[in-house]
């Protein structure tokens, strides 16, 4: 399947024939040949995407190996220069995911010679370094990214190391990677934004001598203001011996909402690699948003950044945003720049008047330029219960979806079920169905039927019929404090795993009583499985993973059940329990759900 769109296209219908459709096009300037530590065009800025590593560290954003591989393929289509595929030492699953990306995506060379660098993150420990290299070395262009904190507060309280010990460890790590055969080595002085600049110059000089090819300067806590961070980049370039022989990079967190501004300031000051994530996801307040950084450079690079440009293909921004949101479970806020639901919406009368006269009065970019495409030829096509497969196929193609026959069969079945209950199917409805059917983990358990009895005259009771991992059909019953709680307990009685529900949320896809509901949940294993999901975090040590799931249906209880089963399937797949290994029966007291559900 080729994903090209999301629900915002519906609001574009009102623009009718004023909507322009642009063909997919490569970057306007050729991408320089990739050489570690060197860029032949001084105006080119490499885009280093860390969605699969830093982005996945967001609570609830755990992704399966298949989902990571799908996203990596989409990032390659987007044209990112480097994909940081993960932290291989974190767990066996993380290692296998990084290796799979290195083997498949890291060797898929485009006709123009483009292939993304595949990078693995590592601490300076020898075990980490060797594990990271083993995971990425099969790529055509492998890289290992190692890091060590350099701020006084980190060295004193977290590392408990002296400055000399930190320098010694960093240099030893880079040398060890060189000995392993890695020629593309990135080093990050963690919390550089709060480090002593003189110490930064010292440690960066030493890792350059040891063989580092990229120096990444992180504003780990989002502390710096743009003029401060830009000044730090300029100072490093001016005062670090050997800095002109390597690439200077930025990695900015968004704790003060300045990650994009700081990244751009760094690029203006001489950085030629920007680390960022799709939708800006990441720890705490997130990272610099790839779409914001890229479009800022695309629109203002010539005028105000001395000709800076990237190799990103912007028309793939929006579909990549959709995929990351669906797989990670991290919703995009409506007013998010570039990819938010309101980014190209105009409600004010003055704004609407201006838009009708000239779109450039209030839009500095077109929605089509980031992949929000609509074919004006089918603007009058209204889908309903009498619509057939051809009409749905036409609609999907106009919205950018190219589905396989089995995928179309699944979506068409759901479409007909919805059309029987709702008058007029909107674009948002269609997109929600596509997302619910296709952006799902490997099916371990499948919901077949659900019936719930609830009200004020008794305990809510749910009966659920499901297809198990062995293909057999089974029925479970649950009693809960509310209809959704009862449904989840019925599901628990069949799946037989202990889980804790840590987040539950629901939104309507469109307005009205007939609207589709989209539910997202996050769970984590409990009881005997709780230790099985404890993995190494790059900076926080051992952490427990959480798993998200989503589901859509016109019935909120069915939507909730589908989301819960989606999360369970993701968790079981990650744990390697796709075959339905029998575990201790779940203790429903471990799961807390408000009776309002």
Structure description:
It is globular and about 75 Å long. It has 17 helices and 16 strands. The longest helix has 20 residues, at 556-575. The protein has helices at 9-12, 65-78, 92-104, 126-136, 152-159, 163-180, 197-210, 226-239, 259-268, 290-304, 317-328, 349-357, 389-398, 405-419, 427-438, 483-495, 556-575; strands at residues 46-49, 82-86, 117-122, 142-149, 185-190, 214-219, 247-252, 273-276, 446-453, 461-467, 473-479, 499-508, 517-525, 534-537, 541-544, 547-553. It has an 8-stranded parallel beta barrel, surrounded by 9 helices. The chain has a 3-stranded antiparallel β-sheet with strand order 9-10-11. Strand 6 (214-219), helix 8 and strand 7 (247-252) form a beta-alpha-beta unit. It has 597 residues and is α/β, with parallel strands linked by helices. The relative contact order is 0.11.
Summarize the structure.
With 597 residues, the protein is an alpha/beta fold. Helix content is 36%, strand content 17%.
